[in-house]
Amino acid sequence: MENNISEASVLSSPRDFSFKKKGSMKFYIAARFDNKDKVKEIYNKLKEKGHDVHTDWTVHPPFYPYSSDPALCEKFSEEDIKGAMGCDVFVLLADEHSNGTAIIMAEECS
After folding, report:
1. Which residues have C-beta within 8 Å of that of residue 75, sequence separation ≥ 6?
2. 66: domain range?
């Protein structure tokens, strides 16, 4: 299945955020697990620009249903929330298949 996220929406050339904070900034990128390759691509571009990735969820193995391993689900959820809460920049990559969970999370973190 082809990824339908446009290049314009994925920070294809991350801006210099030095007007907000000196030095590197910590990014957290929220997206559907199906978009993890695109997220990794963005992570690499951000790192090239001297920024940090705050909590890399793309290294987690996929598992579904979540009820198959509640402890692992809880661990990953806690890591993701800490990552979103501790970042300087929160990026949400939504597409036509995204559900409201990530959007609710983004609203709670702002």
Report:
1. none
2. 57-88
